[in-house]
UniProtKB/TrEMBL annotation:
Protein name: RecB family exonuclease
Species annotation: Amycolatopsis methanolica 239
SUPFAM superfamilies to which the protein is assigned, alphabetical: Restriction endonuclease-like
Keywords: ATP-binding, DNA damage, DNA repair, Exonuclease, Helicase, Hydrolase, Nuclease, Nucleotide-binding
GO biological process: DNA repair
Domain PD-(D/E)XK endonuclease-like: 18-261
Length: 288
């Protein structure tokens, strides 16, 4: 995610910000970025994406319960009412199940929750925040914005950033992308709080495994420059409309192959750079 419009409280204007989903899109394939952030072509979510969104929401609600209530059965009980609320807010999601067995799909989400409980016991700690909105402007003027799935802060002040991965893509394909997003959050938290996060933790709920990484300040400094360079590259491409396709295995998950020259398609005419609001990050992006 690279950009979302944000409101500057001092200037009272909406300002573009780089988000991890769109930044990751641009890094993967500039044309994919263009389709999502500039053309804003609609994408029909897959049921796997919706399941990920649902499970993220259930885990957020689970942590809102008293510690002693955070048990597997309680989490499963949250699935149906949480889906009712999500589908009421997004009726087009419910339409994807036209005539299909929603109950069976809900039950498939229990497997992700069961995987979660194999990885940790949520009765043993309280996170500082779930679905935390973070945003700041770097000295270079590049504004970063994102949502952290969960932030744990130890009594000693050590920070752990946690991201739940629920996507259908094989883990080895998504791992570099996931780590990119985690470093993005680490830079934002480091700059906001003056503390380098002690641990970036990815929890893969499809296969019940986790990956932990300890960044250091020099690395985050370099990564910050990478983000600034990505933003400059986006602005440059935005002026000319020169967003080139960059085919990879990830094309299998691209909703826009029919418009992509690498697959024999033709992109729509470039609509121009949509300042000051070049794109938004959705709940589906966040639950990837
Ligand atoms: S199909 Fe592949 S190369 Fe084409 S826009 Fe999508 S991600 Fe990029």
């Amino acid at each position: 995610m690279a950009q979302t419009a944000t409101t500057d409280p001092q200037l009272g204007v909406r300002r573009p910000a780089l988000s991890p989903s769109r930044a990751s899109d641009f890094k993967q394939c500039p044309l994919l970025y263009r389709f999502r952030a500039v053309d804003r072509l609609p994408e029909v979510p897959t049921k796997a994406q919706l399941r990920g969104t649902l499970v993220h929401s259930v885990l957020e609600r689970l942590f809102a319960l008293p510690k002693t209530d955070r048990e597997p059965d309680r989490a499963r009980e949250l699935l149906a009412p949480t889906w009712s609320e999500l589908s009421a807010d997004n009726p087009e999601w419910a339409e994807l199940f036209d005539g299909e067995d929603v109950q069976g799909w809900l039950e498939s989400a229990t497997k992700l929750l069961d995987s979660y409980f194999q990885l940790e016991d949520p009765r043993r700690f309280d996170p500082e925040a779930c679905e935390l909105h973070v945003e700041l402007e770097l000295e270079s003027g590049v504004r970063l914005r994102g949502y952290v799935d969960r932030l744990d802060v130890a009594p000693t002040g050590e920070i752990r950033v946690v991201d739940y991965k629920t996507g259908a893509a094989p883990r080895e394909i998504g791992e570099a992308k996931a780590m990119f997003q985690m470093k993005f959050y680490a830079v934002v938290l480091w700059r906001l709080r003056g503390v380098v996060p002690r641990q970036l933790k990815l929890m893969y709920l499809t296969d019940g495994q986790s990956l932990a990484y300890a960044p250091d300040e020099a690395e985050l400094r370099r990564f910050e420059r990478t983000l600034e360079a990505i933003w400059q590259a986006i602005l440059k491409a935005g002026k000319t409309g020169d967003f080139r396709p960059s085919p990879s295995r990830l094309c299998d998950w691209c909703a826009h192959q029919s418009l992509c020259p690498s697959f024999g398609g033709t992109p729509p005419e470039y609509p121009g750079w949509p300042e000051p609001d070049p794109g938004v990050e959705t709940a589906l992006d966040r639950a990837d």
